Structure prediction request, 208 residues.
Amino acid sequence: MAEQHDEHTHEHQEPAEPVQVIGEEPDLSKGTARPITVVGNPVLHRECKTVTEFDGELSALIDDMFVSMYAAEGVGLAANQIGVDAKVFVYDCPDDQNVRHIGHVVNPVVEELPVDRRTLDDGNEGCLSVPGAYAELPRPDFAVVTGQDKDGNPVRVEGTGFFARCLQHETDHLNGYLYIDRLSKRDRKDALRQMNEGTPRYATVPND
Ligand SMILES: [Zn+2]
Prediction:
């Protein structure tokens, strides 16, 4: 997912100091930044493969994903956004209470919410794979994702507010969907127009 965005100023705002950090900051010396795939690249538009090998290669992929996410100033990144067909995402994202969440999920599934937790939040959303575009998209303001960690142990991650949006956005990626696929035809067209009018601030993979 793209950085948190202020739709009124269109300027990057430094987030406030987090009140708490959940998760560990990755060792960035281990990874390499890779260019980001953009809308139209087939790897973004089909379901990724389930991860079955919890080995050094997966660990190295996660290292590269963190470095790539920070290089592009994102708050979340799915493996297919660096061209890898595998169900993994990473995140470093604030929630509603300004708690900073850092981590990764392998083979994520978004849990069905009980009816009383289905409150829609119509915040702004952006995506590193749709550079420079933002659109309002209602999503539940609470999300639970289950999956595995890089060693294959079960994990369960809960999020509120912007982090709930991030968890849903990244899981969508791995199922072959971009947030613009959830927009009306008109809003989708507008997002693509915003993208085409700008130049990404980070390296992207050119589409054929
Ligand atoms: Zn995205």
In short: The radius of gyration is 16 Å.
